[in-house]
Amino acid sequence: AAGVIQSPRHLIKEKRETATLKCYPIPRHDTVYWYQQGPGQDPQFLISFYEKMQSDKGSIPDRFSAQQFSDYHSELNMSSLELGDSALYFCASSVTLAGGRADTQYFGPGTRLTVL
Amino acid sequence: AQKITQTQPGMFVQEKEAVTLDCTYDTSDPSYGLFWYKQPSSGEMIFLIYQGSYDQQNATEGRYSLNFQKARKSANLVISASQLGDSAMYFCAMREAGTGANNLFFGTGTRLTVIP
User: Fold this and answer.
1) Does B41 touch chain A (CB under 8 A)?
2) A36 and B CB contact within 8 Å
3) What secondary structure letter does DSSP report for B53?
4) Residue B10: its chain A contacts at CB < 8 A?
5) Do B45 and A92 touch (CB under 8 A)?
6) Most distant CA pair in chain A: distance in Å?
7) Is there a contact between B47 and A105 if contact means CB atoms under 8 Å apart?
């Protein structure tokens, strides 16, 4: 079965640089979520999109922005990178059911961002 | 307040034995979902099992079962017949459906080591 695809898998950037992470959800999934997992930490929710509109917002820094495109893929844009942004960034996708409740979220393999 | 609490930072189990990983949750929302994910050392986040707050029966998926005790607000994961490949980090997560948000709140995880 097709899974969530994330690219790149690894990314190394310098402080103050920008980075763009891409996510391709499971076919027919209409909702995309972004999570950040710091070293030794649990994943923290950043932002989500349903049918190309932002649906929920978590602890996403103002330096980060994201969008979902017409083909449902999503991109997380990160600017003015800081050392503390080094983390594993997950994208997850799900189907949103009638009434707005989401089905199970399936995670991609993650993008490991290292900021030097 | 922490929404998901996993009190076992690390657990050891002998191969072929069963093991229980603890998870307690805190919510005032009557409609919620509880999830368990497995994160091997390679980093991906693998969905294991789901329990809805209104489900009458405990969820089971192969060797995984969820011991759901609603009054105690616990959702422990039971892995039967442990295998070496079960060695990984295990996260309990919750989604509160009543808020309209679909993001997951994760616990701090339990690292399971299966001993040959």
Assistant:
1) no
2) no
3) T
4) none
5) yes
6) 45
7) yes
A92 touches chain B (CB under 8 A): yes
What is the pLDDT confidence band of residue A93, given thresholds at 50, 70 and 90?
very high
Beta carbons within 8 Å of B115's beta carbon, 6+ residues apart = B12, B13, B14, B15
Given a contact cutoff of 8 angstroms between Cβ atoms, the answer to whether A91 and A34 are in contact is yes
In angstroms, the CA B38 to CA B16 distance is 18
Chain A interface includes B101 (CB < 8 A): yes
Evaluate if residue A47 carries a pLDDT over 90. yes
**R_g of chain A computed on alpha carbons:** 14
Burial class (CB in 10 A: 0-12, 13-18, 19+), A52: middle
B101, B100, B97, B76: which is closest to B19 by C-alpha?
A: B76
Assign B17 a pLDDT band (cuts: 50, 70, 90).
Answer: very high
* A5 touches B: beta carbon within 8 Å: no
What is the least distance, in Å, from the CA of B72 to any CA of chain A? 23
Beta bridge partners of A50: A31, A53
